[in-house]
Design a protein that fits this description.
eight-stranded parallel β-barrel, alpha/beta, 11 helices, 250 residues
Length: 250
């Protein structure tokens, strides 16, 4: 299972929210690049970078932060937040994103996501499935759509989506454990899906449970920033998995 630390950007700073509520913001660093370099120095290879200003304003805003991190680290960055138009997507890729997560646009403008899948390929497009009480949420989690999660996922897997980042909004930032049963059910329904778990991770035990459930990747956010998980623990987890893979190859 791949560990993907998250950096959420608001006003150019590294912050975390609780359940997507902007009024709960807590600033952890004035310099997101410094945090990204810390992750890289401990063997992390991938980063989930979220433009919270972009999500709130429906267009990319923090592309300069993306460019600094992508150009000054070797991290593979997947970027999300405010990607609604062809121009937004182009800006993200031009500023160094390896992949882009598409959430609200997938609900409100499905024809765009289909076109982007054909233009860029499913390896560079991640479907953002932000779910609250069984339904997909949009516009920075401020609005719940009538779309059910399973219906949403089935429609897009039939259209070629292979990567899905699923966030249980009710668990995000709560440090109460991830929605393991939800993710297990999704993988049973869609076994070929590259599912990225997001929301609720509070400890290394949570990551172990997600790995046991068959998750190929998991986001780590607030648990790191609040000191529940250390960089050394993440590095050890990644190292142990690499060693396991080597043994399998041998």
């Amino acid at each position: 299972m791949e560990i993907v630390p998250a950096i959420d950007i608001l006003d150019g700073k590294c912050v975390r929210l609780t359940k997507g509520d902007y009024d709960t913001k807590k600033i952890y660093s004035e310099d997101p690049l410094e945090i990204a370099r810390m992750f890289e120095s401990h063997g992390i290879h991938r980063l989930h970078l979220v433009d919270l200003d972009g999500a709130r304003n429906s267009h990319i805003i923090n592309h300069q932060v993306l460019r600094r991190i992508a150009s000054q680290t070797g991290l593979k960055v997947d970027f999300g937040g405010g990607v609604k138009t062809d121009q937004d997507l182009a800006i993200a890729f031009e500023n160094g994103a390896s992949m882009v997560t598409i959430g609200s646009a997938a609900v409100k403008h499905p024809e765009r996501l289909e076109r982007w899948l054909h233009l860029y390929g499913p390896s560079r497009i991640i479907l953002g499935a932000d779910v609250r009480n069984g339904n997909i949420s949009v516009n920075g989690w401020k609005e719940d759509s009538p779309l059910g999660l399973t219906e949403f996922l089935r429609d897009y897997t039939e259209k070629g989506v292979r990567q899905v980042l699923c966030t249980d909004i009710n668990r995000d930032g709560m440090l109460q454990g991830p929605a393991v049963d939800l993710y297990r059910n999704i993988l049973q329904e869609f076994p070929a899906m590259h599912l990225i778990a997001s929301g609720g991770v509070s400890s290394m035990q949570d990551l172990t449970e997600l790995k046991k459930a068959g998750l190929p990747a998991a986001i780590v956010g607030k648990a790191f920033y609040e000191g529940h998980i250390t960089l050394e623990q993440l590095a050890s987890f990644c190292y142990d998995q690499a060693a396991d893979n080597t043994e399998l190859v041998d």
